[in-house]
Structure formats: structure tokens, C-alpha cells
Design a protein that fits this description.
Layout lengths: L5 H20 L10 E2 L7 E2 L4 E10 L5 E9 L6 H4 L1 E7 L7 E7 L11 E10 L2 E9 L16 H5 L2 E7 L7 E2 L18 E9 L5 E8 L11 E8 L7 E2 L14 E9 L2 E8 L10 E7 L5 E10 L2 E3 L5 E3 L2 E10 L2 E12 L5 E12 L4
Antiparallel strand pairs: 1-23, 2-23, 3-4, 4-5, 5-6, 7-8, 8-9, 9-10, 11-12, 12-13, 13-14, 15-16, 16-17, 17-18, 19-20, 21-22, 22-23
Length: 370
């Protein structure tokens, strides 16, 4: 019987240890990342009896106060975001809330301005010591078309949607708005963003370059609503532009029209990531849900291998799981470049079919490359 020398045994054990350590410490490829949500505190629901709340975005100031910028409109108008939304501002000592209303950041400022009657879907960022609030704005005739319980959009306001930005030295303001859109529709009739542009999301890579993803509607389809609805990419060397539009749409799905909405993009570990609303199960078997994408260059996107972020439910820390009609406008609060809290808009229907909407801040349980 052959005996293994102590030296040989040490070498074998060292090799096994190296193999196991290598496997455990091997970083996942970006497509293998998964994002898991924790349980939301009951005080993380931001709602109001008189106002419909939607789409919150969080930033932290130098004093350690958290600022939530969100959309709101009078609830008794019905689902009138397209004509009467305004971007408001709330504060908290925690990114999970509770948040307290402070002021209206972008109020009505007269119909002759491109964003004079409606501001909506904010996303706030700090770049190079200044704060940038990106948003959708529009103008029109101010007429509410629907009623509570019956959603009907005003087509003039819907088609006048453009993308803007306001700038401030502090989240408390004052905020300086631009008198022209940051991203306007393209002048050529066959452009994929010839009719309207909306819902910006922006991030900065490790070279200081800026990448924006936005929703757009073209004019290829006849009729007042146009179509198709797509998502576009634009890049810039500055948070204030000018932005160069790239020619191809992203987040497409074969045999699906309007598959995606509300992407939130961020840059981490030398890659771009996005949380996207899957409109109707175009990307996974989970139906309408929030799903995870990744990209090396911000132009070519792929669905992650573990894509599900959330179905239409919220898990609360009191043990309850609440089913919601919609869970949309995902916006991450990042701390030291890492996801910490996911802010979402949600709603439920009452017994009359009227939507009651609110914002919620959900802690991130895990998202890393290990």
C-alpha cells in the first residue's frame, strides 16, 4: 500500500482549497446578476387622501436629508396625470421614509411654455456637485377628458410630451428650468421619436459620459395616437446635452407591440443595468412585472438570466403581501454606487373602479456580483 507523503497531501489540500476558493470568489457575469427586494416598512407608503401620487425619485443632500421628487395631481379629477400633474417635493431622514410634503418643485407656469401646464415622471441625480431633475413636460388646452373610474387621455397633451431638466445647487432649490426641451421630437416624419418623447432615465459611466434612455412614439401608424411606442438611447458629454440620438430602439420583443415601459438605468461594475416594466409578459412567463436587463455599452441590451425583480405585489414587514393593480416607475436610490432602495408607484382599485395610487420605498435585499 502506497502512503501519501505529507508534502503531497499538503499540495492536494492546497489545490482543493484554491479550486473551492476560486469558485466561491468568482464574480458573476452581469447577465447572472439578480436583484431581490426586501420587505417594505408600513411607513414607506407615501399617499394622500386628496392627491394621486406617482413616480418618486430620491436623492440625498450633503446634510444627510433625503429628498423625494414625485408626481401628483388632484384625485377628484380622475386619472388626469397627462393634463394636471405637477412635480412635488417631500423630505425624510431615511430613504425608506416616512416622507413629508415640503413644496411644489415644478408648478404650472403658463400654457405658452412647452412644459407650462404639466410636469411628470421625475428622475433626480447629483452630477459633479449639482442636482439635475429630469422630467416630462407638456402643454395644451388643459381639458380633462376622463372621469374618476374612466381613464381617457387628452391627445393634445399626450402628443405634446417632451423631456426637460431643471438644475439646482441644492435639492431644496431654487430650481432653474429651461425654456426649451432637453430632448425634443425629431423633425423627420419617419423618425421613431417623431410624435412625442417622454420618461427619461439617465446615468453616468466611469469615463464621465452620460447615457439617456427615453420613451418615444413615431408617426408610422396613422391616427392621432401614432405609433409604434419604443425606447430610444441618446448620449452626451454633459448632463445638459446636447444629446446624440442613436438610430435603433431597445427593449424590443418579437411579436409584441409596446413590450416595455418605465426603464430605470444605472451604471455599476463596468456595465449598464436596467429595471424595466414588462408590459404583458413579453420577456418572461411572469406576465406584467418588473424585470432586469444588462448591457455592456448601453446600446445593446439583453434580459438577465434571473430577470424577475417583482410581480404585481408588495411584501410588507407586518407579514402582509398586498396585490396591486400596477407597480411601475421603478427608480433606484443608489448609495456609493450600489442599489439601496427601490422607489415605485403603485395603485389599487376601489369598489367603484377608481384608482388609488401611492408611492412606496422598498429596501434592496441583495444585488451584487458575488
Amino acid at each position: 500500500m502506497h502512503h501519501i507523503s505529507k508534502l503531497a497531501l499538503k499540495m492536494v489540500l492546497a489545490s482543493l482549497f484554491f479550486i473551492v476558493f476560486t469558485q466561491l470568489s468568482k464574480k458573476k457575469e452581469p447577465e447572472e446578476y439578480s436583484l431581490k427586494l426586501g420587505e417594505a416598512s408600513v411607513h414607506s407608503k407615501f399617499e394622500d387622501k386628496e392627491w394621486s401620487h406617482w413616480g418618486g425619485s430620491i436623492v440625498k443632500d450633503e446634510e444627510g436629508i433625503y429628498h423625494l421628487f414625485y408626481s401628483r395631481w388632484k384625485k377628484d379629477l380622475g386619472w388626469a396625470w397627462v393634463t394636471h400633474s405637477e412635480i412635488a417635493h417631500a423630505i425624510s431622514t431615511s430613504p425608506q421614509g416616512p416622507f413629508t410634503f415640503k413644496d411644489v418643485t415644478l408648478p404650472v407656469r403658463s400654457e405658452e411654455y412647452w412644459d407650462g401646464l404639466c410636469t411628470h415622471n421625475p428622475t433626480v441625480h447629483q452630477f459633479n456637485g449639482k442636482y439635475y431633475l429630469y422630467y416630462m413636460g407638456n402643454t395644451g388646452d388643459g381639458q380633462v377628458m376622463g372621469t374618476p373610474g374612466k381613464i381617457k387621455l387628452n391627445p393634445i397633451h399626450r402628443n405634446n410630451q417632451r423631456i426637460g431638466v431643471a438644475v439646482a445647487d441644492h435639492p431644496n432649490g431654487p430650481w432653474k428650468r429651461l425654456d426649451v426641451p432637453l430632448i425634443d421630437v425629431s423633425p423627420n416624419e419617419d423618425a421613431m421619436d417623431a410624435l412625442m418623447v417622454s420618461n427619461p432615465s439617465i446615468t453616468q459611466d466611469n469615463n464621465g459620459k452620460f447615457l439617456m434612455v427615453y420613451k418615444a412614439v413615431g408617426k408610422q401608424r396613422k391616427g392621432i395616437w401614432g405609433g409604434p411606442v419604443v425606447h430610444c438611447v441618446a448620449t452626451s458629454d454633459s448632463p445638459l446635452g446636447p444629446f446624440t440620438k442613436h438610430p435603433n430602439p431597445i427593449f424590443q420583443a418579437k411579436n409584441h407591440d409596446f413590450p416595455a415601459e418605465d426603464p430605470f438605468i444605472w451604471y455599476q461594475d463596468d456595465h449598464y443595468f436596467a429595471i424595466v416594466k414588462d408590459m404583458h409578459g413579453a420577456f418572461t412567463k411572469h406576465g406584467r412585472s418588473l424585470v432586469l436587463f444588462n448591457s455592456k455599452n448601453g446600446i445593446d441590451w439583453q434580459l438577465s438570466k434571473n430577470p424577475l425583480v417583482s410581480s404585481l405585489e408588495i411584501k410588507w414587514d407586518n407579514g402582509e403581501t398586498q396585490k396591486v393593480a400596477h407597480l411601475e416607475r421603478p427608480q433606484l436610490y443608489l448609495e456609493d454606487g450600489k442599489p439601496k432602495v427601490l422607489a415605485c408607484a403603485a395603485d389599487v382599485e376601489d369598489e367603484h373602479g377608481v384608482l388609488h395610487s401611492f408611492n412606496v420605498q422598498i429596501p434592496i435585499e441583495t444585488f451584487d456580483g458575488i
